[in-house]
């Protein structure tokens, strides 16, 4: 039994253990709706997610906020993605950007965030 915040959770006697594996280069699938360029504005420390379409590589919208949660939910509410894999990847990148912004670290999209000594 696991004590939960709202409910106690029982564990199935047939609990399946699934080993995770994913190769970002081999397994990634392009989202047909487009892609995002993520950065931190140096002046405001806001996270910016530029939504780009593939046809002419044009940035059609820029979602601006302080937290990964508000930006990812705005992207979902606006239906700017069609792939769950893309949503997951965006969530990871936006969390890295938020951590970098709050810890005054450099953020580069799709690169490891170095938190190092503080």
Q: Secondary structure elements and their pairing?
A:
Elements: H1 24-27, E1 35-40, E2 47-53, E3 58-65, H2 68-77, H3 84-103
Antiparallel strand pairs: 1-2, 2-3
Helix pairs in contact: 2-3
Can you describe what's shown?
The N and C termini lie far apart (about 40 Å). This protein has a three-stranded antiparallel β-sheet with strand order 1-2-3. It has helices spanning about 25, 70-75, 85-105, and strands at about 35-40, 45-55, 60-65. The protein is of the alpha+beta class. The relative contact order is 0.15. The radius of gyration is 18 Å and the shape is globular. It has a domain at about 30-105.
The end-to-end span amounts to 38 Å
- Biggest sheet, spatial arrangement of strands: 1-2-3
Overall form: globular
Overall helicity? 25-40%
Number of strands: 3
Structural class: alpha+beta
Largest sheet: 3 strands, antiparallel
What's the helix-strand series? HEEEHH
Radius of gyration: 18 Å
Q: Which range does the strand content fall in?
A: 15-25%
Tally of helical runs? 3
Low-confidence stretches: none
Mean pLDDT score? 92
Describe the structure concisely.
This protein has a domain at 29-103. Helix content is 29%, strand content 18%.
Task: Record keyword descriptors for this entry.
118 residues; three-stranded antiparallel beta sheet; 18% strand
